[in-house]
Amino acid sequence: MSPSNIRAPWLCCAVVLALAASVYAEAPVKAEAEASGAKSPVQITLRLLKKKIKADERFWYQIELKNIGKKRFPVISEVFYDPFELYYNCERKYDVYLEVLGPDGKKLERAPLLMDYVDTGEDDDPQTDTPPTPKEKAWLLKRNELVAKGVPEPDLTLALLEYNRELNEKERREKPIGFWLYPGKSTATVASSFPGHGERTDRARRPPIGPFTEMWEYEFKQPGKYKIRAGYNFLPGKPSSKFKEHRDPDQIKVETQFIEVEVTPSTSPR
Length: 270
Prior knowledge:
Elements: H1 3-25, E1 33-39, E2 42-48, E3 52-54, E4 60-67, E5 73-75, H2 86-92, E6 95-101, H3 134-148, H4 155-174, E7 179-181, E8 186-188, E9 213-214, E10 224-233, E11 253-255, E12 259-264
Parallel strand pairs: 3-12
Antiparallel strand pairs: 1-2, 2-4, 4-8, 4-9, 5-7, 6-10, 10-11, 10-12
């Protein structure tokens, strides 16, 4: 048998293994739970990476909008560019938002903003961490400046909220955030992760999981059954009756069904 004949089977095996490894590496991360709601022309879908976590862990989500109508409509939501904006939307249930019910069936309040800072003395790992964006760097510099001045709570939180809005306004002027969603097309929240409470908020973040975003807006400390849903609300505050028949197609409110999830006791030491 010639050397070329000997090599051929091994080369075939190598190619097959390489292709298999490529397919395995690129396999999409699937959600364990999904719920949708629709009111033409908008369909909203909430996907959760897991339905069960331990207390003090976080759920990971993805929110998708799809145009199920016959005409295009504008999507003007900062959530699809900056997941941080969801924090504000959850409180007023406007724009794209999440709603969480606790084990007692009552609305779960949002977690406090990520103000805590713990210097672990560890260096950032460029192999596993995602560098902060320019906007995040500016926000952290502002936070450090206010902390150095001794600004107390709740003034610190309010000042940072206002500063974040200023950053958004600047970003909006430099790069408009609206876009058209055409019939049959969809758009989804960007994958992102956030520092945890007690973690260094100035360090680079760990990579997100697949297309999912870390749900830092809520803390799940108490074991039990929770319910989570997503909503899309662009109804005007007080619509004029004579303009009702001429409303833009995106001026509607639609919510997904609730997804029941479970939080089990934490096994980590307190």
